[in-house]
Amino acid sequence: MNYSDLAPAYIRAIAPYQPGKPIAELERELGISGIVKLASNENPLGASPLALAAMHAAIDDIARYPDGNGFELKDALSKQYQVPHAQIVLGNGSNDLLELAARAFLASGDKVVYADHAFAVYALATQAVGATGISVAATQGYGHDLDAMLQAAIEHKAKIVFIANPNNPTGTFLSAAELLEFLRVLPTEILVVLDEAYNEYLPENLRYDSVSWLRSFPNLIISRTFSKAYGLAGLRVGYALAHEQVSDMMNRVRQPFNVNSVAQAAAVAALQDHEFVRQTYEANLRGMQQITLGLTEMGLTFILSFGNFVCFKIANAGQIYRRLLELGVIVRPVANYQMPDYLRVSIGLEEENKKFLSVLAQALGEAK
């Protein structure tokens, strides 16, 4: 018999998430070294030094189960954002939190709204519970069309709307005014998951206090991660902030030990390392200028990004991607986001960015 037939049809229909190619895999495939990975929006500076010290200290206690309630991490988040513990949900990365929201509030047949070219996990989390995703056409600049998303959510009686700000993979940004207006007019029975994984990369003049909005919009869920600016991608730790009744439902479907003890200790320390986050922001700003200038000099267009990556348009994107691999640089194809003519490159260290631009120029020259 075909055992896949035992799974529900909506599970069989899922196309698994494809992560960025690991360095070790490319080394095995091509037998080359000195590979630069700019595919997964990781922090090129590594992890916060305070977090590294906390990890080493926590290792001595790994024979014990972690604190299932994550008291110390919740306490640190509570003090930073002035919200009670009851409004905090901890996750095995922010992906986990997106799935917890779906599992807690969606049933088979429910509707979910998200934008075209938005993070792939929104559709996956929706499909995994048998709900129906409604992908709304993006603006001409590949951003969220909030008016169209509002109309779709109301028309289809959606349960959840996913919004990424900044968005991955396009890097587009919605202002505080745009988001607030959307929240004000959206029916309160529709939950909004505001995914702010790249929040720390926003310039000061564009930052907004979404946490304060929780007092006015009990249907708002804010998800954030330690994987990007804090450099803890390998530990998988994130958090959501929401109304107590919402967080209670999410915690009911959460695995009891979904954030390990080393990750919890690292995250507590990372929250205090403001200097590292500042250095990360500044390095990203310099790298963004380096890469976008290089792309412009090559005559390539790109989407203005507010994250730590850039999506650029290029002919024969699949062919160029494969050639970059052969030359030792891993970027990210985004054809699965209905963007077959684009590649996404993460911002790396100066020398990594330089190598990327050099091999990209070589690949373009060979393609002529």
Secondary structure elements and pairings:
Blueprint: H1 9-12, H2 23-30, E1 36-37, H3 49-59, H4 71-81, E2 88-91, H5 94-105, E3 111-115, H6 120-128, E4 132-136, H7 146-155, E5 160-164, H8 176-185, E6 191-195, E7 220-225, E8 238-242, H9 244-253, H10 261-272, H11 274-297, E9 309-313, H12 317-326, E10 329-330, E11 332-333, E12 342-346, H13 350-367
Parallel strand pairs: 1-10, 3-4, 3-5, 5-6, 6-7
Antiparallel strand pairs: 2-8, 7-8, 9-12, 11-12
Structural features:
three-stranded antiparallel beta sheet, Aspartate Aminotransferase, domain 1, 368 residues, 2 domains, seven-stranded mixed beta sheet, globular, Aspartate Aminotransferase, domain 2, 13 helices, alpha/beta
Walk me through the structure.
This protein has 368 residues and is of the alpha/beta class. The chain folds into two domains: 3-46 and 275-367, Aspartate Aminotransferase, domain 1; 49-272, Type I PLP-dependent aspartate aminotransferase-like (Major domain) (Aspartate Aminotransferase, domain 2), CATH 3.40.640.10. 40% of the residues lie in helices and 14% in strands. The protein is built from 13 helices and twelve strands. It has helices at residues 9-12, 23-30, 49-59, 71-81, 94-105, 120-128, 146-155, 176-185, 244-253, 261-272, 274-297, 317-326, 350-367; strands spanning 36-37, 88-91, 111-115, 132-136, 160-164, 191-195, 220-225, 238-242, 309-313, 329-330, 332-333, 342-346. It has a seven-stranded mixed beta sheet, with helices on both faces. β11 and β12 (342-346) form a beta hairpin. The relative contact order is 0.17. The model has no long low-confidence stretch (mean pLDDT 95).
